[in-house]
Design goal:
Elements: H1 5-16, H2 21-28, H3 33-43
Helix pairs in contact: 2-3
Protein name: GcrA cell cycle regulator
Organism: Alloyangia mangrovi
Pfam family, one: GcrA
Length: 63
């Protein structure tokens, strides 16, 4: 498997939509979750605005 321009664009799109690395790997086919994570880091995409499917952070407790 090679990272073609089309596959990279799909990865970027799915990552921006909040899809998990596992979901992206399954959609791309022929690539592992870890390969997706590595590519995301190499592309500088690792900082998301919110985690995929995660809960909102808890409010700090009042003193």
């Amino acid at each position: 498997m090679s990272w073609t321009d089309e596959r990279v664009e799909l990865l970027k799109k799915m990552w921006a939509e909040g899809q998990s690395a596992s979901q992206i790997a399954k959609e791309l086919g022929g690539v592992t979750r870890n390969a997706v994570i590595g590519k995301v880091h190499r592309l500088g995409l690792s900082n998301r605005t919110a985690p995929a499917g995660g809960a909102a952070p808890a409010a700090p407790a009042a003193p």
